[in-house]
Design goal:
seven-stranded mixed sheet; globular; Pdz3 Domain; mainly beta; PDZ domain-containing protein; 130 residues; two-stranded antiparallel ribbon
Length: 130
């Protein structure tokens, strides 16, 4: 089981060259054998959590119109200046997980208190189920 703290508050925040802190959206991802990224959990009170839209198991499809499958799984694309907007698209499978899914978009404001967004590594004996 992956253990993380429910909040990333108190972490040191890297800054850009103009000394503006970087922000994230408070998502921890898991990656499957095809290199697809899925929401593992949302950091409590982070921008993604407060949106009320994103759920564990949703597949990240694009970041600011840059498709993950075409450009690779670079989570640094989620980061940006604190207070800036980022638009994410996700795919949510139907409840029965049979050939049905729904794509949706959500616009979030990056927050320095939720930087960086991370990729969790499951233990060897834990399968990533999506």
């Amino acid at each position: 089981m992956i253990r993380t703290t429910p909040s990333m508050r108190g972490m040191k925040h890297p800054t850009t060259t103009n000394q503006q802190p970087q922000g994230g959206v408070g998502i921890v991802f898991l990656q499957d054998h095809r290199q697809d990224l899925y929401v593992h959990f949302l950091v409590e009170n982070g921008p993604a959590h407060l949106s009320g839209v994103i759920s564990p198991g949703d597949e990240l499809r694009s970041i600011d119109s840059r498709h993950i499958q075409e450009e690779g799984t670079d989570l640094s694309m989620l980061s940006g200046p604190h207070g800036s907007f980022v638009t994410l698209s996700f795919r949510r499978k139907s409840i029965d997980h049979v050939n049905s899914s729904e794509d949706y978009y959500v616009q979030l404001i990056r927050d320095a208190n939720y930087y960086p967004d991370v990729l969790a590594v499951p233990p060897e004996d834990e399968k990533v189920l999506v």
